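Researcher: Last one for today. Full complex below.
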Amino acid sequence: MSIMYFKRMTTALAVTAVVLGAAVTPANAAEDYTIGYITDLSGPLAGSYTPTWEGFELYMKMVNDRGGINGHKVDLKLDDDGLKVDRAVTLAKKQASRDNVIGIFGLSLSSTQGPVLAEMRNIGVPVVTTFSGILDSLPPAKPYSYSTGVVFEVAGEVIGELIPEIVKSGKVVAVTIDTVGGRAAIAHNKLVVEPKGYSWGEVIFPVRTADFVPHAQAIIAQNPDVVVGHYGSSQNLGVISALRKEGYTGPYVIAVYGVTEDTVKLAADKSGSGENLYTVNRYVSATAADNAAVQEVAAAAKKYGTSKEFSTMHVTGWVLGKFAEEALKICGWPCDREKLNSVIETLKVDVGELTGGPIEMSKDDHYGPSYWQLSKWDHANSNLVPIGGWLRKDKLEYSMQ
Amino acid sequence: MGPIVTVMILASTYALLAAGIVIVYKASRVINFAHGEIAVVGGYLFYSIGMFAPGSLWLAIGGTMVFAIVTGVAIYLVLMRRLIGEPFYVAILVTVGIAILFKAAIIIVWRAERVTINVADQIVAILPGGAKFSTVDLATIMAAVLFYIGLFAFFRFTQLGLQFRGMAENPLLASQRRVSVNAIMALAWSIAVFAACLSGVLYGGRALLSPGSVAIGLSGLTAALVGGLDSLRGAALGAIVVALAEYSTIRLIDPVLSEAVPFILLLTVMNVRPWGLFGTREELDRV
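Model: Here's the assembly. Have a good evening.
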């Protein structure tokens, strides 16, 4: 057999493989809604972003099991950015160009969101973030950029408005890590708290802090009447147990930026006391046993299975799934990026008891009014007990721009 | 907790880490950049054994010790031994690769979960201000003190320790005097990994373990560099200096600068005494 023969055979086989590959692509792929989801599944914050993704996935599985949307199933393209900015941008471009997604959902840390949103604006792909959000979604909202999550500036102001429910007067000490989001949160927290007559203190420590005891001492040295933590699970765990160990027994408020209930429980266990722990969250806690909407999410988690313990982050992802379903439903079939974007721009979604009111977008405001709840940790029953009703936040009161 | 006690606890953690880095360097002239990752994996392993067999503290201790010894020997025999004679930066890069592998293990095996080690953590004393001094705090300080005493006794009074010192001084002559270089090197790595795991377990008992906890390795490395890479006495002093610098910055200047201060300190020492506070000057000349 000559070399030429082998070359011809190899070429023929390669061409056949390509043709067959195209032919055996699932026949219904062209009939699915293809959407992308990018988040941190393997990086340092996978513990918070993975359950958010799982909540979204649970909802989409339920939707597909029911027959899809407008008779078409949802094809989810999932990618892991590992909390790396360059990887997040590359994956977004890949999803837009190769996977042909009509929209991207999820995303991860706020520092990864700006570049991804900017890139997708250039291409014209609507992006809806969850868990955390950045100012791009607030008025005047940038095109194609939406959020159903927690924007640090908004959360900071909300917590400032809820502090009187915990202590009527005294000193508020806000603590955060040295990030843009953290600093923004405490800046807005301060702007709301000081006019109410509270005195203010703050402690900012490096992101890679390993030992929290010295920082806890720095916090206590400021004689706080309430301490507010604007960071994620790891820092809350470390700071709460260090504060209790150093003798601070006063109120501590956890701003729920991806903080799950098991983190609160772990912090309470580690510090030997669950007293005086509060959370402020945009979505209802997974421990709300009498909340039918939460139980629906819990049932889905049980049915389809999750790798992470059921938490408020699953609820957060589920809400995004509901939002995505409604958008696709209205978009109809066929649905393209521009059409989806125009739908999302004016979308109003009732998510039931998962938060205090509907999620509403508008042309100038891609975040909309948000609802927040203050809860207190009940260590005996390992659940969060709401204090008062939902606080509605229509817009940022203060602009730092 | 008083400043002195806090600095002592911090310094003890860094001293354990620094000791491991110094031992490996003394034996092989390799700076181990995987030390923080090894420490955290040791902590996670201890936690997992404890979860698997609740109440069996000795099982967890024994399991972690076995892991430490086996891992240390394996790292040397499988990886580092093959690099003898190669340029020094090759071995350093291999330790960077080991660091990546261990960090991946934290994510793959333990799913990047945040865990704390709850081991008989009882209050030993209540300090002024209401701060609690616990058994884990005491264990951290005692572990560092006893480890260093043990190391000094080992190097001073045992045959193996003398062989180690001889090999660290002149490997060629030591091998010609029938000192088993491979055995000493493997022992060095085992001791180093043990020290790392010990610091990881104690750290997990005081704080929490997460993928980000590997940052403690940097503090240990800084302590070793400040004190002198071939000096255990220097490692101990370097740990105290780094801990004091960090703590002072947090309490007196600005907490946000606490991460940078150890490196500013390191740069200063490197510029004034490149071989560290107690390192051997001629070591640097040979390099």
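The CA atoms of residues 150 and 227 of chain B lie 19 Å apart. Residues 3-28 of chain B form the longest helix (26 residues).
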